[in-house]
Design the sequence.
């Protein structure tokens, strides 16, 4: 399957995700992690810790694709390195998710997800929580 990407920066990020790696662009002059929308031609892509905090989240209760059963939680995640991104939150029922919750990255056949830090990220958790 061929995917089209809006730009080279997005392609690089998504290629790492497809390989099961969370990497972020860093400014080589300052060492600061750059948000995915703060592009620099000379950015260095470094491994991220894969940990962060839920800033906000939403619960989808109407199924839009068979591969994503409901309820489906998406969260705005502040990575420990500073940048934010939106990803699925798995391994917790919607009622268990809260702003301020510490999370850890994981990967499945659909890409990047985050789950509670105490969740075992080596296993692929259920997309739907009871």
Sequence:
């Amino acid at each position: 399957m061929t995917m089209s990407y809006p730009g080279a920066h997005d392609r690089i990020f998504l290629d790492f995700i497809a390989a099961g790696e969370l990497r972020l662009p860093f400014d080589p002059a300052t060492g600061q992690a750059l948000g995915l929308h703060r592009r620099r031609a000379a950015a260095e892509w470094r491994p991220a810790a894969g940990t962060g905090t839920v800033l906000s989240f939403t619960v989808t209760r109407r199924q839009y694709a068979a591969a994503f059963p409901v309820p489906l939680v998406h969260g705005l995640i502040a990575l420990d390195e500073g940048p934010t991104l939106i990803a699925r939150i798995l391994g917790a029922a919607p009622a268990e998710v809260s702003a301020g919750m510490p999370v850890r990255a994981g990967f499945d056949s659909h890409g990047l997800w985050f789950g509670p830090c105490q969740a075992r990220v080596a296993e692929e958790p259920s997309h739907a929580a009871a």
